[in-house]
Amino acid sequence: MQRERALFVTRRAIEFGRSVDGLSRVVTGILRDFAARGYRILIVTDELELCSDTFETKTQMLQEVRTSERHVLPISDVLLLANAFDPGPFWDTARRFTLSLEKSTFLSSAGEFSGAARTAGVLRSEATTQVFGKAAA
To answer: Under a CB-based contact definition with an 8 Å cutoff, are residues 108 and 118 in contact?
Structure first.
């Protein structure tokens, strides 16, 4: 059975991309490019960002991110971490979507949640300044 790759991207990374003038379309384009190359796009956040761990709140956040700025983003789901070092949601999501964590990529704005991603087995990690910066240049 073929396992899919994922791009795990933190909510803060997406917000960072939106905060820079003219970069919002770049962020959308990058996420769409990853999706076109066969990556499943997953948002990573934590309970402190959501202020609640209810399913409705998680669903509302997913809808908000998907439809923001008139662009429909190809996002599959939201991972809700109990803390910055909790690899469990990565493992659960990998089982649910049949993902290869070793072939996946983790994208964050300031290294948030990178410990959990690394512990879960995500070997490739990028900073938004590397990915979005190259695209904006």
So the answer is: no
